[in-house]
Amino acid sequence: MANALQELVKIRLEQQGWSYGDVARRGGIPRSTVHHLATAERVTRMPQQGTLEGLARGLELPLDSVRRAAAEACGIHLYFEEPADTATADPEVATLIASVQRLSVADRRHVTALIESLLRSTSDNGHLR
Fold it and tell me: What was the pLDDT predicted at 92?
């Protein structure tokens, strides 16, 4: 069964009649990278931002669509506060938020308590960001 990133690449290649090399040239990334992301059964870690940007350029798709598919292929679900078209979310924040889903219920409670404590501390000191 194909993962979300494989499906995205496969569908786009079929729609446009492109090869891995076509996508790589347009995106400015190695063909081997495109091939790996399109054929790897499981993506073990989130690709670097530059790779995602190159893949998005090469596929002529919005970066957020490629980022979401890559995250899902890694078992991470990204959430954005704004609609996908206008999202300018910090990738580090998105990855942290999505990673919480992989924690146990008890560990999520600990993370929630930590965040609430940090926010209270920051707010009490007048440094709310």
Answer: 59
More confident residue, 101 or 50: 50
pLDDT for the residue 87: 44
Query: Which pLDDT does position 86 carry in this prediction?
Result: 41
d(CA 23, CA 19): 7
> If we measure between CA atoms, which residue out of 60, 53, 86, 83 comes closest to residue 8?
60
Q: What are phi and psi of 43, to 5 degrees?
A: -90, 120
Say how far apart CA 60 and CA 58 lie, in whole Å: 5
Distances from the Cα of 1 to the Cα of 6, 31, 47, 71, 119, angstroms: 10, 23, 20, 17, 42
Q: With contact defined as beta carbons under 8 Å apart, do 65 and 5 qualify?
A: no
Segment 52-78 shows an average pLDDT of 88
Position 57 scores a pLDDT of 96
- Phi/psi at 46 (nearest 5 deg)? -65, 130
Closest CA to 5 of 50, 71, 58, 51: 71
Q: Are 22 and 31 in contact (CB under 8 A)?
A: no
